[in-house]
Write a structure and sequence with these properties.
Elements (H helix, E strand, L loop, with lengths): L1 E2 L12 H25 L5 H22 L3 E2 L5 H25 L2 H8 L1 H13 L6 H20 L8 H24 L4 H16 L6 H7 L2 H26 L4 H8 L1 H14 L5 H20 L5
Parallel strand pairs: 1-2
Helix pairs in contact: 1-10, 1-12, 2-3, 2-8, 2-10, 3-7, 3-8, 4-6, 4-7, 5-7, 5-11, 6-13, 8-10, 11-13
Length: 302
Amino acid sequence: MKAQSPDLKPAAPAVPWLVTLSLAVAVLGWGWAWVGIRDTVRFYEPGPLALGRYLVASAVLLPIWLWRGAKLPARGDWPLTLLLGLSGFTLYNYCINVGEQTVAAGTASLIAACIPVMVTLGARFFFAEKLTWIGWFGIGLSFAGVGTTTLGAGKAIQLSLGAVLVLAASVCAATYSLLNKRLLKRYAPLEVTTWTIWAGTLGLLPFGAGLPATVAAAPALATFKVALLGLVPGALCYALFSYAITKIPMARVASWMFLVSLTSVSLGWLLLDELPSGMALVGGGITLAGVYLVNTRGHPPA
């Protein structure tokens, strides 16, 4: 194994359609993750569920890492890599799994909609990324759309310990997104994703002590879904998200995250027969309009 040089390398030209495809797949995968977790949490406790997912993700990424040269971050980047793993995977997944056991789905989706808002504000203050007034309006419109979808789902908005845990998970996700960009200036997206997932998986070991017994007792289909949650929303979607960050401004990437709730509602309708209300559909339309404004008219011309 050898440490990779942190020297900056010129980025390859952006490919708009590939970035769009990457974000679309990430949104679809993360939207299904909410449905998949809600379906498997009946058989897996929060700790074993999180550990099981990311053991699968870690195992999938291992041969790719070896094939690409078994590179490691420079020694000076290890603390940041560990921080990213703990915030983006250990704390985020454990808090979200515990929170979803007690918090209403409407509360969770509305709190999670704070993630792109926090990322956009962080990008403005830490990376000097600018938005036009139309872009800020689009961010607010998307947040209002998520709120409308939440109310249309017929779930009460409540403050509880579960809500606090989901909020903590949202802060961790925003922290991961912002700090991730610092590593992505020096390393490839797939390498950063691999290192941070491994670090996060190590952090999950104390919480997943009952994993072997859970796997033995759970239905095979539930275990398969846990593996799929690690493969798609875990390894694949985070790699695609990291790739997009290297190609377009953070605010544009963050605006796509508003679509996760809309995707989750749609997949809940298709997979779990949870028919969305008219208000939920209206909220989805508002969210789409906001995302469109951020991505088409949200940034000043270069």
